[in-house]
Amino acid sequence: MQWVVRQARKAAGINKEVTTHTLRHTYATHLLEDGLDIVSIKELLGHAHIETTLVYLHVSQMDRKKPFSPLDTLYADKP
């Protein structure tokens, strides 16, 4: 797998180091940014401890949204 990633990086003309771990980390970070909860990400990655997964919270580029109640948007799409 590492050889495939290295060859793909070269073919794409990417000079920055890319590893299988980079892809795993990127995958997890994007899941988090797309709204998947941290416990589900922990399970997907096979981490034994949530603390390991919490590292992704520090690198994530999530926009902080104001908390809201689902009741606030219940009729938002209704005329």
Describe the structure.
The chain has helices at residues 2-11, 20-33, 38-45, 50-53, 55-59. The chain is mostly helical and 79 residues long. The protein contains five helices and no strands. The radius of gyration is 18 Å and the shape is elongated. The model has no long low-confidence stretch (mean pLDDT 82). It has a domain at 21-60. Helix content is 52%, strand content 0%.
What is the typical, i.e. mean, pLDDT?
Answer: 82
Number of strands: 0
Silhouette: elongated
Spans with pLDDT under 50 lasting ≥5 residues?
Answer: none
Number of helices: 5
Q: Give the helix level as a range of percent.
A: 40-55%
Secondary-structure element order, N to C: HHHHH
Question: Secondary-structure map with pairings?
Answer:
Blueprint: H1 2-11, H2 20-33, H3 38-45, H4 50-53, H5 55-59
List keywords for this structure.
79 residues; 5 helices
In short:
With 79 residues, the chain is mainly alpha-helical. The chain is built from 5 helices and no strands. It has a domain at 21-60.
